[in-house]
Structure formats: C-alpha cells, structure tokens
C-alpha cells in the first residue's frame, strides 16, 4: 500500500507532487509528506492525515523547488505520527526515501545499524534504507555514480517488497528502485514524474512501467534504468490512452454512492466488452478440458466474487473447485500442477497476496486466468490470459460496482465453460441484461427505517443458505468496513451449532432468502431466532407468509442471479449506516484501496 510520487523538471514541483499524491490517496491516507532539494539543502515536510493536510502545511511556506518526492501512507510499521510519516531520512540528513512495500528483515537490519552506532528514530521498516545507503557511502563523495553503486549494494540486503524514490542532498536527480511493488515513470513537456500508479500521472504523459528488480535514475529530461547487476534495461512505452481517473463525484454524496449507482452500467459494459470481443473464446479449450481441479484465489470482495464463481462452476459444470483466501492459499500444501486451472480475481490487479498465489501457480505450470479491472496491472500482465471487467475506475475504498462487474464475468465464464464441456445451463447472457434493469432500483427509502433501528448497534448478523451465504459474507464486509458495526455472516443452518446461544431480544439478524427451494428451511430458522427474541430484517425475493420486523422485497429475475440485487441492497444499507453516523464512507479508517503488501 502507500503511494509514492516524485518530480524533477522545469516547473516548481510542489503542486505537481501534491496533485499526484491526491490521486494516489486510495493507497493510504494515514499520513503524508514530501522531501525536496532547495539551495543545496534537503528539506522535508510531514503531517498526519491526508494530502489536504499536507497541502495546508505547504501553503504556509510554498517552495519553488523543482525536485521533490512525496508519499501518502497506509501505516504498516509504527503508529500514525509525523515521526513515522515518509520521507524517512538518514542520520546525516542527506538521504530521503519514500517507500511502498514492506522490508521484512528490518529488525535485523536495524540491529546491524545500531551496532554500527547509527541511531534510528522512527518505528518504520523504511528508515533502514536511507541509513544503509549512508553507510555504504561512508568516506565516499555523494556523486551519482557512488550513490548508484551504494544503492545496488543495499537493495539485495532488503527482504520483502519495495518501490522506492530517493533524494540525495545536492544531487539533481531522483533515484528509484522496485521489487514486487509497482512504479511508473511519466515523461511530460516540463519534466519527468514517478508514481505508484498511472492514475497519478498527467493525462498526456508518456508512460513507462518499471519491471521488478530494476533501479534507475530520473533526470529533468529523461531516465536511465538498470537491473541489479547494473546492466542497462530498456523500458517499453505503455500505450495508455486514458489514465482512467474519474474524479468527479457528479452530485452524489460520496464516490461509494455514485459507484453503487453505476452498477447497472458496470454490468452491461462488462458483458458487452466480453461478448463483443469474443474474449472468452481466447481461453484455450484444452486448458479447460484437461483441467483436473479449478482453483480460485482472491482477497476480500474479489474473493466473494470468486466464491460465486466456484458455486456456479460446481452447480453447472460439475467441476471440482477450490476457492480460498489468497493470503491462506499461498502458504498451504496447494496441490497445484500443470493440470490445474487457476483463476485470480482482483479489481486493482495489484493485490500482493493474489499476486503471490499467481506466482506459485505459474511455477507449477498451471493455466492462469485473471479477472481484473485494470489493463496495465501486474496480475493482468502476468496471467496466461486476462478477462477484463469494465467497471470503470473505482474511487471509493469499498468495492461496489467492481463486485457487480466481477459477478457478471463469473456468470459469463461459467456459461462459456459449460459450453466447452458440453453441459447444460439454464441461463444465458441475455438474462444479464434483465438483471441490469433490476439493478436500477434503489432501496434507500425502504432501508431508512432499518437504519434507524440498527445504527447504534455494536454487532449484527447476516445469515443465509446456499448462494445467499456468499452474499451475506459480502454484505457483512461492506457493513463492517464503512459503518464500523461488527457484522458476522453465517450460514443459517450453522446457527444452532453454537451461535444461537448469543441470541436474545437485543439481537438483530439480517436474513437473506432468495432461493425458492430453501424457503421453508429459512422460515424455520427465522422462527427459531424469533423464539429467542431476535429482531429479523428479511431481504427476500420469495413470497413468504411470516411476520418479521422489516421486510425488503427484491426482484432478481431468476434465483441464481440473487447476488447482484441482494448485494446492492446491502451496499446501500452499509452506505446509509455510515452516512447516518457521519463517517467518511469513501475513506474508511485503517484501510486502503489497493493492498500491495502481505
Ligand atoms: C472491500 C474491498 C476489498 C478488496 C480486496 C481485494 O470493499 O474493496 O476487500 O476487494 O482488498 O482487492 P482487489 O480486488 O483489488 O484485489
């Protein structure tokens, strides 16, 4: 996580770097800072909170510096305070570093530095980097050549992941390096920028993406890159027509609200792009036919889309499917081999754990399919084939429309695989057009009384059977992340195996009922909860004859499509709860949109 930025050019760097950091804030917003060179001195300004706070701090004393690095932090090591904000500087104050990633062996490195008499002041893993460079430069002049050599000695000492941008007192250039963390270079008419993501670059920039294990030098009119043997590396220019940033909130109260509203078009655009481009036909048929096991790995919301995909593949294609948290799967005995068909779902295409699983799958010779929302992402580039969702940029940290687009790809992919395997399926892509219409309905008014009843709760349950349990998991995640109410998703049938002990007349349970054949069983479960005094909020597409505290009727078109609309209702419930509590829905505490560390 964390966003890093840098600029060197003809113009004052301050606004350029601040603008870039603002666009990278989705990567973290715990603290922010810049470092710059001016009058042969290296200066830093650091604040807690987001880039707006940094802007305010810099406005008091605007700098004409034309070389600057910047950082927006999601705290991994050390609490949120200015001491732990980046840039982190060397003890002699001549080297400043901004870092995205994690240095896993930082405690060991700290110890070595300490034994050499170097005093570290922050709690971060990053602070070892400027100090190690300083150590390697001991007794040497701070020239470009010496710093490059020093950096090249330090990088192999760092275990973990990093994208670095480094300023050295008195040297008119930026030093950069990457390993398992993204970094792009953007050349413009006025200078050269570096950023963690293309969205941070100006629209007209010529964009170059750094490969892993690269280091480089950036000057005001160009850059030079090397591998870790200091042999020159040529970067390919990326064909980026539009950096994809959509910064206009268009009259909505938040990006989350706007993006929920865009769900029908996210679904339609995804379906259209996949179908018109015949995108599914490029998946090698023999990879599908010869697959012994299907594996689906992802994190968070993307994992829930993966669970729906796994459910559909099992139901319609009779395929044995392992669906797992990427963060768990990568450390298990995974049974991957060349007969495995692996699917990696990720909105950003940059999630570290999902990437970790992808690497394992590639090493085992498995076929790797990606489902991502970002063409230029690492996952998109690493997989054997990538299916793109066309949700458009998602700004809000909570994923909403991207989930709907992922569900759409899951249904289309299942339909395609069933065709390849000669299986029957009872829906077609045309049904998805009707689902898009169903998704147009808003539930805010119907949900308001529910919000009034539950807004002050500490804890809440969401329950469902079968595919509704997956929707419950996604709904619980949304409610937790934006409204800060603890919300537990459970399969309804599991209640009486323990958790029912907690139920009494202060308990609220949201129950999902969208599968006709399960109606009677769900009703029995509701009665069991009501017998213990629990309040029931029922979200259903079925005609039911039972009295509950609140009932929201939904139209799914067909039972199997229930994850689309039922999830939308839960997204809107989460949004309303957060708004009622005056929370910043787009930037929930402790989170970041792109999780590029383990
Ligand atoms: C929740 C949310 C996260 C992401 C997860 C994976 O609303 O957005 O759970 O889904 O961090 O991110 P991607 O899809 O970018 O791999």
Describe this structure in words.
By secondary structure, the protein is of the alpha/beta class. It has three domains: 3-233, Aminohydrolase, N-terminal nucleophile (Ntn) domain (Glutamine Phosphoribosylpyrophosphate, subunit 1, domain 1, 4-Layer Sandwich); 247-440, Glucose-6-phosphate isomerase like protein, domain 1 (Rossmann fold, 3-Layer(aba) Sandwich), CATH 3.40.50; 442-584, Rossmann fold (3-Layer(aba) Sandwich). Fructose -6-phosphate binds at residues 299-302, 346-348, 351, 354, 398-399, 477, 481, 594-595. Fructose -6-phosphate is lined by residues 299-302, 346-348, 351, 354, 398-399, 477, 481, 594-595.
The number of helical segments is 18
Q: Major β-sheet, in short?
A: 8 strands, antiparallel
CATH architecture of the largest domain: 4-Layer Sandwich
Name of the level-1 CATH class of the largest domain: Alpha Beta
The counted number of beta strands is 25
């Amino acid at each position: 996580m964390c966003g890093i930025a840098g600029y060197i050019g003809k113009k004052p760097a301050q606004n350029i770097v601040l603008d870039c950091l603002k666009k990278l804030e989705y990567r973290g917003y715990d603290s922010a800072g810049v470092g710059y060179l001016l009058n042969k001195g290296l200066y830093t300004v650091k604040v807690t909170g987001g880039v707006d706070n940094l802007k305010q701090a810099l406005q008091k004393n605007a700098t004409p510096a034309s070389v600057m690095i910047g950082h927006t932090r999601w705290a991994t090591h050390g609490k949120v305070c200015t001491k732990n904000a980046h840039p982190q500087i060397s003890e002699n104050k001549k080297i400043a570093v901004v870092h995205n990633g994690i240095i896993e062996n930082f405690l060991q490195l700290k110890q070595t530095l300490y034994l050499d008499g170097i005093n570290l002041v922050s709690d971060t893993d990053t602070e070892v980097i400027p100090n190690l460079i300083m150590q390697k430069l001991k007794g040497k002049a701070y020239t470009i050549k010496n710093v490059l050599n020093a950096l090249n000695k330090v990088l192999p000492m760092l275990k973990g992941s990093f994208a670095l941008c480094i300023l050295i007192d008195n040297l008119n250039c930026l030093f950069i390096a990457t390993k398992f963390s993204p970094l792009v270079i953007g050349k413009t008419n006025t200078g050269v920028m570096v950023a963690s993501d293309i969205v941070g670059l100006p629209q007209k920039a010529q964009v170059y993406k750094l490969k892993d294990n690269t280091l480089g030098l950036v000057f005001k009119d160009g850059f030079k890159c090397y591998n870790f043997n200091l042999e020159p590396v040529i970067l390919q220019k990326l064909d980026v027509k539009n950096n994809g940033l959509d910064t206009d909130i268009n009259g909505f109260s938040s990006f989350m609200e706007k993006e929920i509203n865009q769900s029908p078009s996210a679904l339609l655009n995804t379906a259209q792009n996949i179908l018109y481009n015949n995108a599914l036909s490029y998946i090698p048929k023999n990879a599908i036919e010869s697959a012994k096991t299907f594996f689906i790995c992802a994190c968070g919301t993307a994992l829930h889309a993966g669970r729906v995909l796994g459910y559909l593949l099992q139901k319609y294609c009779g395929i044995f499917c392992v669906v797992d948290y990427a963060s768990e799967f990568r450390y298990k005995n995974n049974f991957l081999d060349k007969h495995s068909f692996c699917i990696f779902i990720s909105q950003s295409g940059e999630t570290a754990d999902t990437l970790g699983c992808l690497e394992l799958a590639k090493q085992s010779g498995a076929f790797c399919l990606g489902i991502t929302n970002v063409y230029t992402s690492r996952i998109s580039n690493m997989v054997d084939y990538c299916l793109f969702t066309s949700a458009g940029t998602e700004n809000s940290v909570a994923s909403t429309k991207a989930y709907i687009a992922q569900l759409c790809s899951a249904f289309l992919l299942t339909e395609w695989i069933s065709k390849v395997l000669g299986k029957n399926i009872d829906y077609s892509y045309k049904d998805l057009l009707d689902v898009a219409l169903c998704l147009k309905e808003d539930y805010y008014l119907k949900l308001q009384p529910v919000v009034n009843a539950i807004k002050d709760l500490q804890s809440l349950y969401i329950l469902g059977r079968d595919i509704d349990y997956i929707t419950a998991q996604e709904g619980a995640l949304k409610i937790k992340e934006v409204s800060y109410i603890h919300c537990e998703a459970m399969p309804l049938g599991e209640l009486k195996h323990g958790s029912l002990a907690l139920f009494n007349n202060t308990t609220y349970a949201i129950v999902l009922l969208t599968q006709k054949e399960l109606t009677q069983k769900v009703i029995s479960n509701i009665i069991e909860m009501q017998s213990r005094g629990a309040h029931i909020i029922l979200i259903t597409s079925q005609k039911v004859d039972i009295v509950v505290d609140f009932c929201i009727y939904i139209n799914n078109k067909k039972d199997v499509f229930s994850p689309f609309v039922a999830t939308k209702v839960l997204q809107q419930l989460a949004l309303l709860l957060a708004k009622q509590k005056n929370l910043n829905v787009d930037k929930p505490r402790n989170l970041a949109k792109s999780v590029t560390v383990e």
